[in-house]
Amino acid sequence: MRALPSLSRAERVAGAAFLLTLPLVNPYIRGEGNGHYAHLRSLVVDRDLDFENEFRHGDPDFVSSTFRRADGHFRPRLELPDGRARNQWSVGPALLWAPSFLQVHAALLLLRAFGAHVPADGYALVYRAACALATACYAFCGLLVARRAAARWSGSTSATVALVVLWLGSPLPVYMYALPFYSHASASFATALFVGFWAARRPLDRVCEWAFWGGFAGLMFATEPLAGTLVVIALVEWLRGRGPRVARGLAFIGGTLVAALPHLAVKWALFGSPLRTGSLIPYFWEAPRLGAVGFSAEHGLFAWTPALLLAVLGLLGLCRREPGAGIPLAIAFAAYYYAVACSQSWHGSSSFGNRHFVALTPIF
Fold first, then answer.
1. Is the peptide bond before 81 cis (omega within 30 degrees of 0)?
2. Is the pLDDT of residue 251 over 50?
3. What is the pLDDT of residues 172-213, one digit of tens each?
4. How far apart are CA 34 and CA 125, in angstroms?
5. d(Cα 214, Cα 220) in Å, to the nearest integer?
6. Do residues 186 and 170 make contact, with C-beta atoms less than 8 angstroms apart?
7. Cβ pair 191, 142 in contact under 8 A
8. Are 92 and 186 in contact (CB under 8 A)?
9. For residue 62, how many other CB atoms are within 10 A of its CB?
């Protein structure tokens, strides 16, 4: 059994700096964060999948965009045929927040049992603070995992510089501290697990490794379905591998399905199929906005965050130095970029930078 790796000096310094930033975490739920959080609150406290009360408890802008001002009823597109709210957002963030939420809920129920007058309703500040802090911790752990992966190919110093630049000079900190209930920072952690596991163990020879890797893929998909495009890395690895391909492929698929099961089950219950997200945002696969995604003044990826252009150029350099690692990562980035470019919401709407790409922080 492998021992847990010790932290390097750079990682310890980064960890100390991260602890000093925790007071910056904002426990206010806004925008689509209401949808992610509603999965957890409704299942644990109400024990159902009826999100109307959670949505009515959202921030003012979210409430006004979900319910008609005239009569307080759902806006037509946001109501399912059975009268329930359309919750189109992913379940993965709720899975990651669940340990923190459940500990707080258990503690408050215990206090109430001893006569304390404390709310155990899922809305109290202590719930939100615990989940928001969990997001920041997950994102920082994702940075550490990604740093270790990068250090394998470009050295410890370069990897540490990349960690600092992405932590401070990309959209990540906005969704790590200011908007922790959006899925993006959590998705960067899930992506880091997927990429980091592959980087540490490639080439993956054992069937059990493929099952674990599939589990990370399932969590990544459940947290940000668009990040499911990154399984192309596994496809490339599978195609060029030797040995029991069928067993490895089945193990990966099995692990993916097990980890993604909560997300798929909720979508099935809401929309009648585990493959339907309920999203109202269309994709135009034959008309991608490739140039606009990168360079538009409307949240263009490289126009708003020049450091990410350096990251992509570095990825091309990795393709030359370490093609076995660089080429799958480059293909994954290209597939993700194309998918974003085909979305009607390619610009991220209300966004700091192009928020869709925060999930790719480990690759950058």
1. no
2. yes
3. 999 999 999 999 999 999 999 999 999 999 999 899 999 999
4. 15
5. 10
6. no
7. yes
8. yes
9. 19
Is residue 302 within 8 A of residue 295, CB to CB? The reply is yes
Average pLDDT over residues 16-37: 97
pLDDT over 60 at 2, yes or no: no
| Region 86-101 average pLDDT | 97
pTM of the model: 0.95
**What is the rounded CA–CA span in Å between residue 180 and residue 33?**
8
Name the band, by pLDDT with cuts 50, 70 and 90, for residue 7.
confident
